[in-house]
Write a structure and sequence with these properties.
Blueprint: E1 7-11, H1 19-27, E2 31-35, H2 38-47, E3 52-56, H3 64-74, E4 80-84, H4 89-97, E5 102-105, H5 110-121, H6 130-148, H7 152-168, H8 175-204, H9 218-229, E6 235-240, H10 245-255, E7 259-268, H11 275-284, H12 288-294, H13 312-322, E8 329-334, H14 337-345, H15 348-352, E9 355-360, H16 362-372, H17 374-379, H18 383-395, H19 398-408, E10 412-416, E11 422-423, E12 426-431, E13 442-445, E14 449-450, E15 455-458, E16 474-478, E17 482-485, H20 490-497, E18 501-502, H21 508-511, E19 512-520
Parallel strand pairs: 1-2, 1-3, 3-4, 4-5, 6-9, 6-10, 8-9, 12-17
Antiparallel strand pairs: 7-19, 10-19, 11-18, 12-14, 13-16, 15-16
Helix pairs in contact: 2-3, 5-8, 6-7, 6-8, 7-8, 10-18, 11-13, 14-19
Length: 522
């Protein structure tokens, strides 16, 4: 069924205020009729076979709950979505008892309506393949879990499920179900953003026992214990910049002949989800504010010139010394392909180390190349294409060779990252002075102008354990798929960055970082 064959009736006593929503649905190809009272709604439903009816619950005269049974009598098979301002349980019970298809709570946004329409009108399309049918069965459970998620572990579980379904549906020919999944992913990121805003400051200030392992506690909580538990077997930590959980799932089939998968976890990147902050915190075992205070000569703020990640090895050795670990440690940072070939040729120092650390920057380079190169952008237009390119690169990379050498050497291998990336598509307006940081997923500086409802703002950086370049500096973070654009040359800027992979803000893709433990097969 094509959208332009779908007839929708929207009933609301304030229907004139819904014009943007209706225009949005019409732009998607839906035919939408409207009326402003229950009496007309019943007459219209009797005279025309609508595919779906959206019904406001609180209307003068005949309420939505009073209108509903008359509509059902006329059109028993037509799905009805109830819209209500009230979250009172008895109203929802009555609506659900009257066999509504779905309900939405005001204020609603167009994507919520579109998601509900696709869920209820295009059900038949969703069973064209077995995976589509399976996702349809899972859809409601995932939607329910979004409202019930209370802990970091809950969000990890949701993210794993969404990634699994994204990969399951990659080859589906049903664009509708992929649209539904995309909408559910966006809905999940919207709720995850609210969760982070409520809890982040408590996490970084250790004000709650229910806080996740984060960048600055990863070594203390996970890596050091794993090295100690290896019982003489040597350990290699492989940190791949910009590495996401879906990319891990893509390359794992290439590794399972050499390694056993012991554990597959997710930890939480600090904010900003940017290399300068998250990776330095990981290797130092300290939040950025503490690094700046304790080692001011090794921390540069965003507006200062110079390399921002020059002292990672120093930070690591200092952290291990502080923890009392006298291990033989090596540290290799690979930015260019020739560095990987050189390390393979001189691999003995890695084999002999108690803990060898390899930082691999290729995915970060690939993400930037996708932004800057039209050819790479065309090759990786969709998330699935970007995963495919990641797998192709990995399969023929020096990194894959190294991992096979580590398996032969009997090393345990930890694979992780400092942060992930997200494909952005929605510009939001931000104004700042020339000292403002350039990243489009977060900004730090003074005199920032923005809509506070669109970002997570931290006006006192010390509350988030972040340094500030001057006394009036603040931080703001983009949510979901938003990116920050200046009004000057906005159209050109937006065209350049829309659809690119970015990091620095708040999303599951950026903050929920894979942490994988592999052991070599016997």
């Amino acid at each position: 069924m094509e959208n332009n064959e779908v007839n929708i009736l929207w009933v609301d006593d304030e229907v004139e205020l819904l014009k943007p929503h209706i225009l949005f649905l019409q732009s998607k190809g839906y035919d939408v009729d409207t009326c402003n009272n229950g009496y007309d709604a019943v007459d219209m439903a009797r005279s025309k076979p609508y595919d779906l009816i959206i019904l406001d619950e609180m209307m003068p005269g005949m309420t939505g709950l009073e209108t509903l049974p008359q509509i059902k009598e006329a059109r028993p098979s037509t799905p009805v979505i109830m819209v209500t301002k009230s979250e009172e349980e008895n109203i929802m019970d009555k609506a659900i008892g009257s066999k509504i298809a779905d309900y939405l709570i005001k204020p609603i946004n167009p994507n919520q309506v579109l998601l509900s329409i696709k869920k209820n009108v295009h059900r038949e399309q969703l069973v064209t393949e077995q995976t589509t049918a399976d996702y349809r069965a899972e859809f409601g459970r995932i939607s329910l879990s979004l409202g019930e998620a209370r802990s970091f572990g809950d969000w990890c579980s949701i993210y794993r499920k969404l990634v699994s379904w994204e990969m399951e549906l990659t080859d589906s020919t049903d664009e509708g179900i992929r649209d539904v999944l995309n909408l559910q992913q966006d809905e999940a990121n919207n709720e995850f953003g609210k969760f982070v805003r409520r809890n982040y400051l408590d996490w970084v200030n250790a004000r709650t026992d229910d806080r996740p392992t984060m960048s600055h506690t990863l070594f203390k909580n996970r890596i050091i214990p794993l090295v100690e538990q290896a019982r003489g077997r040597k350990t290699t930590l492989l940190l791949i910049d910009n590495f996401r959980y879906d990319q891990w799932r893509t390359i794992w089939p290439l590794l399972h002949s050499a390694f056993d998968l012991v554990s597959e976890e997710l930890y939480c990147s600090i904010l900003p989800t940017a290399t300068q902050y998250a990776r330095n915190a990981l290797f130092a075992g300290l939040m950025p504010l503490a690094i700046d205070k304790m080692m001011p000569d090794k921390w540069l703020n965003d507006n200062e010139e110079g390399g921002k990640n020059k002292y990672e090895e120093d930070f690591l050795r200092r952290q291990l010394t502080r923890a009392g670990k006298q291990w033989n440690v090596t540290f290799d940072k690979l930015v260019r392909p020739e560095a990987g070939r050189k390390l393979i040729e001189n691999f003995d120092h890695v084999r002999q180390a108690d803990l060898s650390v390899i930082v691999y920057n290729f995915l970060d380079i690939l993400s930037h190349a996708r932004t800057e190169s039209e050819i790479v952008r065309e090759l990786t237009e969709e998330e699935a294409a970007f995963r495919s390119l990641t797998r192709s690169w990995f399969e023929y990379s020096e990194l894959f060779v190294m991992l096979k050498m580590l398996a032969e050497a009997g090393h345990n291998v930890i694979i992780t990252s400092d942060h992930g990336t997200i494909r952005v598509n929605n510009p939001i307006k931000v104004v700042g002075d020339r000292e403002t940081s350039p990243n489009i997923r977060y900004k730090t500086g003074r005199n920032l102008a923005y809509n506070a409802k669109e970002v997570f703002e931290i006006t006192r950086p010390q509350d988030a354990q972040l340094p500030q370049s001057n006394l009036t500096s603040s931080y703001i973070f983009a949510l979901g798929r938003d990116f920050m654009a200046y009004p000057n040359n906005a159209n050109q800027f937006i065209r350049y960055y829309r659809g690119t992979f970015q990091h620095g803000g708040i999303s599951m893709e950026e903050m929920l970082v894979p942490f994988i433990l592999l052991t070599p097969k016997s």
